Automatic annotation (TrEMBL):
This is Lycopene cyclase family protein. SUPFAM superfamilies: FAD/NAD(P)-binding domain (SSF51905). It comes from the Bacteria. It holds the Pfam family Lycopene_cycl.
Amino acid sequence: MHIEADVAVVGAGAAGLSLALRLARPPAGARRLRTVLLAAPPGPARAAPRTWCFWEAAAGPYDAVLRGSWQRLRVRAGDGTAVEAGIAPLRYKMLHSDDFERLVGRELATSRAVSRVEAAADRIEPEPHGALVRARAAGGESVTVRARWVFDSRPLGRLPAARTTLLQHFRGWFVRCGQPLFDPSAVELMDFRTPRPAHGLSFGYVLPTSRHEALVEYTEFSRAALGREEYDRALRHYAEDVLGLRGYRVTACEQGAIPMTDAAFARQAAPSVFRIGASAGATRPSTGYTFSAVQRQTHAVAAALHAGRRPLPPPAHTARSRFMDAVLLHALDSGRVDGPAFFTTLFARVPAVRLLRFLDGRTGPAEDLAVGLRVPVLPMLRSALALPFLPRRGVPHP
């Protein structure tokens, strides 16, 4: 099969689906772009189902398919002391990848601009006025797409060289309890009543969707992921010994590893080939949140395409944000700051809405300074001064 297109979107994760959806909805008067979304068929090349969390004010474009949303967040210190805050007018939202894919699929089914082809891309070959994507369908058939612009959202095989790279790795259980054991009014954002690993930090995370149901996760910030048995042992301890859950049933699981790195991600691979999403640096290095940056990035790309401009994806985060994240990552990795105390103090001393705006990169220099004065200044300063002398090393993608 050979297809000629204006745009090829490679990969159907958050970034690929978001860009395809925006191109399926051209603004009035814009030229309709022939777009092909190449989605890997079921198999090893396709990402496992997962949840994405983000925050935004008031209603959003994906509210109809959210699994839950909240206006209160809670952080617990290791001794159980809780810091709880409202985040109105913001809402913390949980979106499942399957629900998002179905939403986009319904839109594409009626679109005259975007078509979806199930095929896993093998390679992308630059050409004088575009690029050729070579892919393979589930049955082994060859699929080629020649496009003026190609946007690659697939994970990188190897991360760019970085001074510090930690993993935010986790396993979560979707649980259902016979008794009403959850508080659906608030998210347990970071619960540090978990055993401290030898290096890094760990915490529990609870997204309650009703009095009886929740996503319960065990998360670590450290250098290496765990085995499944180790995750399940930690989850069992957190669910039963910390949360006191009894008579619960695990209905589904999710597991993942998100690189938290101060690497510089290239957004362009060839004159007509660009990267989008996590492979273009959309993941916030200090938190692992990605979805909001993906929305900003794909909005800018779609606007440029519809306006006939060169669609280089913008940086997902400001240089100031990336520098602050690099300092924090090194401070955590070196042990200069105590992770649980750092995050608990930050949530206790900074108004929640301002802190979320800061974590989303939407604050100005004055607000950033105000947040910075609430953290351990001397350890962070020592980490900042050490950065220029740290070597950059490449690591495989988890």
